[in-house]
């Protein structure tokens, strides 16, 4: 619970509710956690790779912010992650998305089956 | 014609001669205009400008005289306005109407356009950025302006009068909604997007775009005896009128040195006189934007009701000296924060010591210094936001408001306490968390009212919500439901019951804490409440319907089919009386195979083992016997054992079932061994059951057995009573009763 307002003009990392990760200079913040980010970069992570897309200035409505943290500029480069080009990371992301969707489909199917099973059981149960 | 009272003396329609020399007007014009025209504001420039214009007058007597019909214009010309763009306006006017007349055209063209003079204070906002640049002062807060912001001499008397007909307040920004507690963020005269360079002040707030004769006086310490020392920091201002220790950004927001709100001055001519920094006493409801009660003022005379506008403040804006209050943090938390800060500082120091790193960091600092967008947020604004964040930490009941935070730090403390016990001795003082006892002020919300209006606005806000939708609950008729729907409804009802019972459970679990915090008198009532809630919980679980001697098992079984229900029962059990709990246990035992089947996916039943075990060790012999019977589904009479015992098989194949069984057996053994002189009937019953039990156990193939959660130690002695050595060995191996076999 440190005062986030003390961290102006240091690089910040913001995680949004839709899963995006933004990195930029926090220029302004208010009590709703509305943010103004300057020289923002959207960082996409897939596995051990990441790619940065420069985005410019962001004004983020506070309700969409999940968390916000200061980046230690000295430690920033000290990461096992590997930076790749934008095209590459987008491709990786697409692939990951696909596998996830397929897994999701299987899960949904399994749940549906279970639901049916429960219902039939209960029908039988209430009948007995 | 709209007129300010201040300018009543200078009517447009009257005698031209009245405007011959403004000097004549001094007596008739009231003090407000004194500021505008008098010595307070513009000094010599005024007179010089006037002279210049007077010269102009002389230059075109002919042109003007020809237009006597246009009285307004005449008056304008003769006004001796020291405003330089009056000339522009004049020329515009003239051009529009007198396009044909060559004489006038030439006259107009030759009229020197008054350039905004660099040193002049007569800048109007339409002069362009060059002039505006110099108008800094109060607008870029934290600076002491020596310049008056705006000055309009007599715009009212200009032909722009029709525009001016509108109320000044229309031009102003709509008043920002103020929360009665928090206030509003400090208003910036310069919009936040402005780069911090001193150069351009690109756009003004509308508040400043006021065409009215507003003269904002710069803070003039020598002139007006400030009611309080100028050096008084906002901190001091805050602290005095309020409860000590209670900080709210509202005072903070209202305190900043806001000088030069032209709007304010417009509203309150008298305000400018002596009441520099007229303060409103804190009103519970709507607060004027800028007001803050000064601690040492003589009681502010309420001669002139402040009106809806903000007030002029003459506070020296200083960077507030206080840091946001960290007392609300748990002491452990604060310690951690300080530690981290220390580490950071140490790191920096270390790095600075090192060669390369040092230079790297200095370049980093350079970069920061050169960053033109740095510090777009003023320190004041940052602190204001921090204040709000800290305010959110204030609470009268931290356990209620911030349960996880409290628990987390309590756990940490316990850990460190445990370590200390092992260590040398307490090194750190173990501070107890002393939460600030903030009295919760009752804020009765008063809806916004405008003065002079009839009735109230129907406004819905966070504090005053309005019902938007009328949602009516319609219960469906039982007839048209399909079987599936009924099933679904039943499940939903069960879920609802679980939720209600869970709420009761959470309350009951909390009573211990409340008991400690409560007063002596309240305690019996608390106990009653608690008892009552426990009874309700039990009733909910068993689903007792009126008129039923014994509730059917069905209700309970339904609850137990749902994962949350099982967990809940496990938590409720410790609170129930032994009889109630035993009843629950028996019901479970009866329906165990069914429950086991239902639990196949959740696998939550084992959570019940612990509370059940605890219970079993308190049960009397009779109950234990019947329990065992239930569990193994043993026939009451040993007459005809069934060829197969699916009930028992199911139980044994399940981890929970087997564990429970073993626990029951163990308890039986305890009872037997502890009290050999027990009643014979009970004894006999037990013995019978045991015989049957062992038979069944011997029958079951080992492969079918589950792995129990725990194996009580006294089972060997138990079985040894009832079976011979051979079978005992068999049982031992089968149930893995002997440690070594594993």
Automatic annotation (TrEMBL), chain A:
Q: Does the keyword Nucleotidyltransferase apply?
A: no
Sm domain residues are: 1-74
Localization: Cytoplasm; Cytoplasm, P-body
Q: Which GO terms describe its molecular function?
A: RNA binding
* Keywords assigned by UniProt, alphabetized: Coiled coil, Cytoplasm, mRNA processing, mRNA splicing, Phosphoprotein, Ribonucleoprotein, RNA-binding
How this chain assembles, per its entry, is: Interacts with SLBP; interaction with SLBP occurs when histone mRNA is being rapidly degraded during the S phase. LSm subunits form a heteromer with a donut shape.
Report the protein name in the record.
Answer: U6 snRNA-associated Sm-like protein LSm1
Q: What species does this protein belong to?
A: Equus caballus (Horse)
Q: What is the lineage of its organism?
A: Eukaryota, Metazoa, Chordata, Craniata, Vertebrata
UniProtKB/TrEMBL annotation, chain B:
GO-annotated molecular function: RNA binding
Superkingdom, taxonomy of origin: Eukaryota
Concerning InterPro entries, the annotation shows: Pat1-like, PAT1_dom
UniProt keyword annotation of Ribonucleoprotein present:
no
State the organism's lineage.
Answer: Eukaryota, Metazoa, Chordata, Craniata, Vertebrata
Question: What would be one Gene Ontology cellular-component term for the protein?
Answer: nuclear speck
Q: Where in the cell is it found?
A: Cytoplasm, P-body; Nucleus speckle; Nucleus, PML body
Give start-end positions of Pro residues composition bias: 292-309
What PANTHER family does the entry give?
A: PROTEIN PAT1 HOMOLOG 1 (PTHR21551:SF2), TOPOISOMERASE II-ASSOCIATED PROTEIN PAT1 (PTHR21551)
Provide the alphabetized UniProt keywords.
Cytoplasm, Nucleus, Phosphoprotein, RNA-binding
**Which gene underlies this protein?**
PATL1
Record keyword Kinase present: no
* Comp. bias regions, Low complexity: 339-352
- Where are the stretches annotated Disordered? 1-42, 155-188, 288-316, 332-372
**Protein's name in the database:** Protein PAT1 homolog 1
State the Pfam families in the record: PAT1
Composition-biased stretches (Acidic residues): 7-33
**Sequence similarity:** Belongs to the PAT1 family.
Q: Which residues form the mRNA decay factor PAT1 domain?
A: 446-689
**What biological processes does GO assign it?**
deadenylation-dependent decapping of nuclear-transcribed mRNA
* Main location as per UniProt: cytoplasm
